C-alpha cells in the first residue's frame, strides 16, 4: 500500500477535540493512521506542513450556483473551483437557478456537472415549491431520490401559513429535511438594507428585523405542530437567536445558520452606497452581529457562505437597483479567519461552525479520525497576499476582498483523499 | 468605510459635486449662501445673465419627471451662459444599471461639463459621481428619499434673508418626513448652520425610524411641536400615502397637522411659513396661511434660481481647478 | 526698488480727476470702484470730490475670463450699483492696471446694468505688461517692475503698497 504522509501540521478538529501537531497518513481516500506510521505500506507522497493547520473540510449550508441559467455570473465549474480554493469540500446549492431546481433533471444536471468539474462536492437543495412560487408543492420525494439533500425555497416567500403547514407535513412524511429562510415579504418588500439610523440617513428603504422574526415565529410554531426536520437558513437578527434558543428549550430540534457577511459587517458598511454590501439578508446592527457571534461561540449556529456571484454590471447601479449578494467562495477561510484575528471567535469556535455544526445538520459523517474519509484543508495562517482578479476562480466580480491584502491561505484541499485544490 | 464627502469635495475641501448637505462644513454652506446672495443682485438687473459658464454644457438628466425643478435648473444654467440640454429619461427605459451606465457613457461622449441628476433611487447621484469621467460635475436634483440639497439650501437662504440668521432658530418640519429627501437635507443643513432645535412633526407612520439620530426631535402634535418656533416648513403630502396604509385620509391629516391660522398661533408671532411646493391647499396648509403675511413661499421660488446658480458655479469651479492642477505649470 | 508714496499720489490723482471732470463737463459723474483695491481708491477720490453719491462697487468675479483656470473666487461679494446707470458718466477706478483684462470684464459687467453715457478709466498705478488695447485716462504713477514681480495694495486706511 502506498500512502500520503502529511507531516508536522497542527491538526485542529473540534469534532474529535484535537489540537496538536500530529502526522496524518492517508490511503484509498481514508485516514489510515494518525500520529503514528501505518504498520504496512510505503510513502507515495509526503507534504511537509510545518506551520500549517490541518482542518476538516468546510461544509457550506447554502451558496448560490449561477448554473443553470446565469452564465454571465459563472458556472458550476467556476464556483465549485472557487469553493475548493476557499476550503470547502461540500457545498449545498440553493435551488434558485433558472430553471429552478424543482425537477429531478435539474438536480441531476447539477450533480453531474459538479462531479465532472471535480472540485468541491455539491449537495443540491431541491425546491420545496414548484418554480419557488410558494404555492404548489414540488415533487420533494422525487427530488430527494435524485440526490437533493434537503428542500429549500431560497428567500422566496411561501404564499401563506396553509401552504407552509402542508409542505412541512408532506416533507415530514418522508423525513425530508427543510431549509427555511425566515422572510416575511410583506414587511421586507421594497427594502434594500436594515431598517435603522443608517437607512434613515441614506434615505434607503429599510427591512425591519420583524420581517425575519415574524416569519421565524410562524415557522417555529408549524415545525412544532408538524414535527418536520427543519433548518433555518440565513439568520441575521439578535431576536431570532433568542427565539431559536427558546424553541430548543421547548424540545424542538431546529438548527440554523448565519451568512459570514452578517458576522463580518454591519449596516454601517452601506454608508457611501457601496452596492457590494447590498445583500440578503441585510447587514444589520452591531447588536445583531454580536448576538450572532455569541451564538456561534455557543455552538448553536452554523456559518454559511450565502455565496452569490455577480458580473460587474449587476452591481454597477445605484444601491437599491443593484442585484443583491456577495461573492464569498474564493478566500472564504482566510476571510472567516479574520474573526479569529479580531479576537471575536476562537479558531476552534469558527471551525466548528464551518464543519461539525453543518455536518450534523446534514447528517454527514465527518471528522479527522482513523478510518474516516479524508476531507480536509491545509491552511497556512502566516501567508499574506493580495487577492487580485486573476486569483479569483469565481465568475463573480463582487468579492469583498478583491484587491485587498489577506492574511492566511488555503494551500491544499482534499475530498476523499483526492486533492481538489 | 467610505466617507461620503470624499465624493463631493476636492482634496482642499472645495465643492466638486453637490450631492448632499450632509457633512459639508458650516463655512462651505455659508459660502453657498453668500454666493447665492450675490447672484440675487444680478437677478435684479436689466441683463440677468453673467458669462461665468460660457461655452460649458450642462445636461439636465431627469430619470424622474419634475418640470418645476428642471425649469429652475435650466434657467440657472442659462443665466450663467451655459448651454443646456434637457434629457427626460422615462424610468422604464433604464430598468437596470447597465442602461444607466450606457446613458452616462453616451453623454460623456458629448463632452458635457455638468450633469444635473434627478433619480428615484437613493444614492443615484453618488453612483453617477463615482462612475462618471473626471471633470464632470454632478448636481443632485433629488435622489429617492435621500437628498435634494439645492432645495434645502434655498430654504436656508430664505430663512437667512427673512430671519437674519439660522443660528439659534427653532425650526419645525411638518408632514411626510419618511419619504422626504428635502427634509433630510434640511435637517443636516440646519444643524450645521447652528439652528437651536430642529423638530419633525407628523404621525408615527411618516416619521422614519431613528430620526433622532440625525439630530431632529420628533413631535406628534402641532401644539407642542410648533411652540416657540421661528420657522415652520410644511412638506407636500403625496396622495399615494393613503393607499400604502400610512394615513387614513387627507381629512384626518389636515385636522391633525394641516397648517391653519389657528395652529400657526402656537408658533412665535413673527414665525415664517415655508413650503417647497407645489402646495396641496387644504391638505397640508390652508390658503389663508399659504397666502398670508407669514408665508414666504413665493420668495423661495426666486431664491431657488440664485442658489442653483451658486452651486453650479462653485462645482464647476472646483472641477475646473482640478483639471487645471493636472496640467503642467505655465 | 523705491515704491512711490501712495497717499501722496492719491491726493494728486484726486486733483487730476477734478480737473478732468470740469474739462470734459461730466455732469453728476458716478465713481465705480473695482473690488477690492479699486473701491478703496475710489472712496479716497470721492472724499476729495465732495460727491453726493456713494462710491458704487463692481465685483467682476462673475465676468472673469480666467474662471476656467482659477475657478470662482471663494468670497464673491457682489456688485453694488445704483438703481440705474443708464446715461450716467462713469469714472471707473482700479488700483493697479496690468493686462487690461480686469477692465474689460468690468466694462462688460457695466453694460449688463445699462448703457452709460461715458466711461473714464482712472488707475492708481500702471505696471505695464498690457495684453489688451486698454489705456487709463488718468494714472497716478507708472512703475517698471522686474519679471515675476507684482505689487499689492493693502487698505483701506492707510493705503500701503508692497512688492509681492
Automatic annotation (TrEMBL), chain C:
Domain of life, per the record?
Bacteria
List each copy of the Phosphoribosyltransferase domain by range: 11-134
Question: Which InterPro entries does the record match to this protein?
Answer: PRTase-like (IPR029057), PRTase_dom (IPR000836), PyrR_bifunctional (IPR050137)
Q: Which UniProt keywords apply?
A: Glycosyltransferase, Transferase
GO terms for MF: glycosyltransferase activity
Q: Per its UniProt record, what NCBIfam families does this chain match?
A: PRK05205.1-1, PRK05205.1-5
Q: What is this protein called?
A: Bifunctional pyr operon transcriptional regulator/uracil phosphoribosyltransferase PyrR
Q: From which source organism is this entry?
A: Thalassolituus maritimus
Q: Which gene encodes it?
A: pyrR
